Amino acid sequence: MQEMVKGSNVTLSALSENVGSVIVSLGWVSPSGEGDADVSVLLVGADGKVRGDTDFYFYNNPVAADGSVQLLGKTPTEAGDEDRIGFDLTAVPQDVDRMVVAASRYRDARFGELENLTVTLADAAGDGLLRFTIEDAAAVSAVIFGELYRRAGEWKFRAVGQGYADGLAGLATDFGVDIDDDAPQDALEGPADDEQAGPEPLAEQEAADNLDGVPAPRPPADDTATKPSAARPRTAKKKVTLPKAAGKSLAENESWRQARLFPVSALKSDRDRETRATSVLLSVMAQVPELGRRLTAGFGAPAGRMETFTEVSLPHGDTPRRPDGVVRVERAGKLWTALVETKTNGNALKSEQVQAYMDIAARRGYEAVITLSNDVALDGSPLVDVKIDGRRKHKVALRHLSWAEVAHQAQMLIRHEGVGNKAHAWLLQELLHYLQHENSGCHGFQNMGPAWVPVRNGIDDETLCQGDPRALDVVESWERLIRQVCLGLGGELGQKVLPVRGSRAGRDPRERRSLLADQLCLQGRLQAELRIEGTPGVLEIAADLRTGRLRTAMQIPAPEQGYPLSWAKRLVRSLAEAPADLHIETLVEGDTAGPRGTLERLRPEPADLLPKADGARITGFRLSLLKSMGSGRGNAETGFIRSVDDAVQRFYGTVAVHLDRATARRAPAKQPEPVG
What we know:
The protein is of the alpha+beta class. It has 12 helices and 24 strands. The chain has helices at 171-174, 270-287, 289-296, 351-364, 403-417, 422-436, 452-460, 469-493, 509-523, 564-574, 599-602, 640-654; strands spanning 2-4, 9-11, 21-29, 38-44, 56-57, 69-77, 80-88, 98-104, 115-122, 128-134, 142-151, 154-164, 305-310, 325-331, 334-342, 368-373, 397-402, 497-499, 525-532, 538-544, 549-557, 583-588, 593-598, 618-628.
């Protein structure tokens, strides 16, 4: 992978022959686990301006109609998370001179609070081609990471790294984007101290670059006081989503079952489930372009006419092979092809089978092999081991999807983002109903693996030693479970839910997991943190295998203004609908333990949350719920996997949803006044 420095550029075709489509990834690490940014792309003409409002792609306008740009959303990585953007360079209109890739933060947040600001670019096979790390971001709220531009018919990439102190003030209009006149001004401008400041680049840039600004970031989800009206550009057609409440049924009684497009009652064997699931998914992908693009754009597929096939016979030695499916996308007379291998009901992928499909794809010039199963792939821990013949000029990408990811994308489209018409919404609803049916076999990660019971027994009788490989297996299963919990909750909420990994966790995934496995052996606990968009803190999950209890918790900072007694009363009042057994602990500066108690006891006396010691400074509050863990491997109602998912859902639905988002970035509390 080529390392780039600020201001340098490179021709993409010099790095790879497979750059008809590319994936650009923007990454950063938040030491606190709460920092984030929004990406945006602007298609700019030779005059340095967009051709129209629809050339501005951001969270409310994520996909170009011609498929040239698609914002793919965030993906967890070992160093934090990445925001990925798919570019189909063959579809970019000729009058587009360059495509600017930027990211923005909201209000007083600055990029200097984040670490490891990095942009990477990968070709259609998924091979990383270049990386650029921004070292000098500080008090800026918007950064242009880089740009793709044309020179003499070739696409090139320039490492930009230009920051702006007034990133929230008029950056979209600098590129000629027309903002609605009735949009509140404070939704687009930066902090008060920067209102009159012009763009302040981090370093001098060549005058030929003509980089004027970046689009404004999105405000917090529930900040109703400053939420702007929808800014142009808008999509050409109104998107269709499912109604929040279903209409009254016309059934005579509850025993009547609604007719379904994809029935599951006839499924008797694993083979039946695999065949039906493959056909159901591929057919919907071909008929609903939004889903087809969403699932394949990240694999390097162009935007174009998609056709899907099942049970295709392909020659392979003496015995033909029959992959479960084939996806073909046609764009400008060129074909992109992927073979699909499917597993359901927790069945594992077979290395020899996937290896055969990789060999077939390489010989026939196909671009990818996509595996699909209940398992969740982890960085640095492949589900199947395959050998790549380095002598072959044609490269084949091996990509994995979990059924949980498919369900997540369907939920996002029909419940939150919308699709083109009612027929597409209905097809996605039928697909989601099929995937979530107990008989489909497409339920995602459901088993903690063969090492789970021996590790729990070893922790109980204190015989589990550091270095035991079974502990590492359990840590990997735990990480898969956490990723699936994020997908499920994010799909229901329509918000980003991502596992938190600070920069101190290390970049090497195997080293990090080995450290967590040693901690499991010593402490008997599995721990994780989730960042849920719209909540004031990080959701902590701890599974204590010694006591058999699960703890979900969130730490929220104290407000910057007001008095401690007012804080305590306001907090207890906001939790009026929370469970009575919710534990609340006051966090005090220093090593001193603060007061704690259950919500049931604190409701009549919120003042009990105030520390007794004079001069004690309250820094925040910690809210916790406890529940018993399931003892099974996860495929039963009382299983461990089910209990973790239920614990997260319960904490969010009964506690986190009621907390004030405005406390998220406030400074530590001031010295409390004496209470009379």
